[in-house]
From TrEMBL:
It comes from the Bacteria. This is FeS assembly SUF system regulator. One of its GO terms (molecular function) is DNA-binding transcription factor activity. Signal peptide: none annotated. GO terms for cellular component: cytosol. Pfam families: Rrf2 (PF02082).
Length: 150
């Protein structure tokens, strides 16, 4: 079965909550209450999401977390990669060195194509679409890759 980890699922839920609160800063406690995710888990996730430049944090009495960019500019794959690392169906999906069987494997090339298709599908779903209660319509168009400016 293909399945995201519970931590990644929670990260998407947190990000969707913040998308609904786009013009407000939310503390980890507020996020825990709003989502039902335990606060220690929220704290762990927001640190990871800040590190991945998906959230920005603000210190102080009015501090908390906000999306680092509009929800329409955050792809679901961005969140998955922030928590789990690159999306891959098999070890060889990331590179030629990742599998001992590669020399004799007859399916590696096709697994890489399947991985690319899944990556493209996930890149085409924005956080805004996922947070919206409307059904996502297919086909999807990939979200432009975000380039952080220094």
């Amino acid at each position: 079965m293909l399945k995201l980890s519970k931590l990644t699922d929670y990260a998407v839920v947190l990000m969707a909550q913040l998308a609904q609160e786009a013009h407000h800063t939310c503390s980890s406690k507020q996020l825990a209450v709003a989502t039902g995710i335990p606060q220690p888990t929220v704290v762990k996730l927001v640190k990871m999401l800040v590190h991945a430049h998906l959230l920005k944090s603000q210190r102080g009495a009015q501090g908390g977390y906000q999306l680092a960019r509009p929800a329409s500019k955050i792809a679901v794959t961005d969140i998955i990669v922030a928590i789990e690392g690159p999306v891959a169906m098999t070890a060889c999906s990331h590179g030629r060195d990742a599998c001992d069987l590669l020399a004799s494997c007859q399916v590696a090339g096709n697994w890489q194509k399947v991985t690319q298709a899944i990556q493209q599908l996930l890149a085409g779903i924005s956080l805004a679409q996922l947070a919206d209660r409307q059904a996502i319509r297919l086909p999807l168009v990939p979200i432009p890759v975000y380039q952080e400016s220094n």
